[in-house]
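Researcher: We're teaching a course module on how sequence relates to structure. For the next exercise, students receive a sequence and then see the predicted structure as tokens, so they can try to spot secondary structure elements on their own. Here is the exercise chain.
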Amino acid sequence: MLKSMTGYGRGEAEACGLKFSVELKSVNHRFCEVVVRTPRVMSPLEDRIRRTVQNGLSRGRVDVFVSMEETEQKVQQVKVDKALAVAYYKAMEELRHLLPIGGEIELKDLYSQPNIFILEEAEENLEEWWPAVENAVTDALNQLVQMRLNEGSRLAEDISKRAEAIGKLNEEIRRRAPLVVEEYRQRLNQRLAQWRADGMLDENRMAAEVAVFAERANITEETVRLKSHLSQMMECLRADQPVGRKLDFLVQEMNREINTIGSKANDLQITNAVLSAKSELEKIREQVQNIE
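Model: And here is the predicted structure for the students to work with:
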């Protein structure tokens, strides 16, 4: 099924007292480009996040926004700077013997000194975070893909209608083309009668002119190729794999055939049909730019 390259998805998951939120936003791009933005502490996980997104998409620029917030109070650990405590104790003992001061050195004398007790937060374990982060990314990616599928379905419907319209115009052109040569032959016959009346008849010249015009006005090959391109386009709309690049190529080829028909056909009806076909094709081109 056809996929658009624009979409949005969001996912959340919790682990280790943290909630991870992931947002994905995608737009048109020739290739698959994934830009990941995370809090600094999560930077080591960016490559894994990028690969997870790339595994689910073929084309488009995807911006990934990851945020985290605490859901539980972090447990802090208290550590003792033993070396510093011993240094304080020795210094106090030295003063006690040096000065006429009585009493014993007690524990309260030590823990009142600065920097003996150190508060440390628990170390971050990214490996414990990753399963939750991956789940959040996957949920966001699934939403994004579904939105791209829904938009792709609408694009396919619109392109199909416009391709059918071009097909009908191409059939009108195909039926009209032989009549153009016949009408030109009739006009030449009228000129021939006038030449005879004026004594200026040159039948060889007339035959040559008809042959040249018929060759220049022959658009059979162009209408056949245009019909083939339209058929391939309809097949692409039903394909399961990404077809954006192929559709873009077909639009270019169809544009070439329609332009050639317009330059060859010296006829108002065909010219009008060509203009209508070009208008529909331009709208298809705009839609194709958004297909994966």
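Model: If you want an answer key for the exercise: The chain has a mean pLDDT of 87. Strands lie at 7-15, 18-27, 32-37, 60-70, 76-80, 117-121.
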